[in-house]
Amino acid sequence: MAALTPTLVPALTPALRCPAGSRPTRRRAGSARIAPGCDRQYPAVSGCPRHATGCARISPDCARLSTACDPLCPGCDLQRPGCAPGCARVVTGCGRIAPGCAQDAPGVPVTRPAVPGCARAARESGSGPGGRHNGRRRDPMRIIVIGAGLAGLTSAWELRKLGHEVTVLEARNRVGGRTWSQRLGNGQITERGGEYVFPTEFAIRRLSAEVGVPILSHNVRYARRTVDGRHVSSADLEATTTRITETLRRMLGDGHTRVSVEEAHREALGPDYRQNPVYRRMVTSLASDPSLVSAASAFLYDPDAGQPFIDDGGRFIGGNQSLSIELARRLGPAVRLEHPVMALDQSDAGVEVTLADGSPLHGDAAVVAVPLPILRELRLGFELTEDQRVALDHRIMGTAAKLGVPLSAVDDDIALQSSHLTWWSWRSLSADGEHRIPALSCFAGSRATLDALRTADGPETWVAQLRAMRPELVIDGDVLLTDWSADEWTRGSYSAASLDWTPADLDAFDVPAGRVAFAGEHTGLEQTLNGAVVSGLRAVGALSRLTEATGGAV
Which of 5, 291, 343, 370 pairs with 79 at a CA distance of 20 to 30 A? Predict the structure, then answer.
């Protein structure tokens, strides 16, 4: 992670200090996380704080350290007995911690050296867009967000909350991007796009809680699917993953370079590695040729490293698109559908977007949140930073398809993986918490598998393979096929790190390219719904760098 410039936390005004006799807010030195309750309300950036013992620290735009911060902050030792609500509010201008709230460390400045591998940390000192800088408030900006998927809508929502005027331009006639929910003929909702919200994906869970979109468990063995009549135990899964990871570390230590996911599995598991259920699960989810994907990115830089393993995932009630729909509803007329963007340029005066009909739109800054293939075709009248250009060059786009299947009779296996192709199928838990829904979802990843299933010709080949794999199923109505490689505004599923990927790529999008920030799963290593949300928050943090660089209003 890139080191961040040391920042001072300003003093509290007397009216906002803790009441007499109350204890200060405390965080242990070296703590690896900012309380999720705080970064729900303020954009997250790379890097992690290492705190001076006894010094009070919160994100100023979080405004107060509430009870929500406490239980979700492992190892931080947050203590606030006797503190009235609002006692830890931060006001910019002074650059020191108020003695009233840091009694054993008065006047201790706070620095933020990066901690490798650490979780994202909220920026302090009011440095976000629309915050304060050098004691004066910045003017609101007009910010154009290109793309109304989860990444773009997250950015727009956070920027709106910070007081900016946002305009969201979406090429499609709907919001949601690669989240797309639709009802089958029997009334069941199927996900044509992104499916899973995992238990430790806190950014999207905070966002959905904030706007009131509830989550229901799939109750599906996502990582331990049935292959050839059996599924691995949690202990076997952990042992196999550890073996692959340690083998990879040894290979890299011996001087191997550009080690692929395929090569790491072969070296660790032996000649029959392709029949291993752990391999089959991983390469299915990659949606790319595993011989072209960096093993280091997949095994050594997992964003969930250190989190407990929970073999389940969730989905939003009403469909996963419902989160995007709710964000768009709250943003109102700021979201403009069927407004494809062809070009983007910038100058010292601001940014200019050119729509497909040739009409221009002007703003102070922009967030580009479109899929990788669309970004590569967008006419940019400016240069990306060198780090950004290299990071994008190190991404490859995967291919995937989904199949929604209405059922009138089911079998008893909830998660079944093909033993010879990279596709699987599952049935999710019903909202009653007792039964499974009468529908099946199928996911196929990689160009080779889509070609074998002949998805370009329709669903028939895939349905025939499904019937052979699960003969007890009775299909009740039309199936719904979605081939993302044929989608005009995506042209693939999600990206993967190529063999040229390096850890330096992780920080490339923490900063803007001039007045333009970038969001989307391809800007990070989480190719998930949560990864889209995280990237949207990161883009807001990048624009905070823009306002810092200009020293005031843009």
Answer: 5
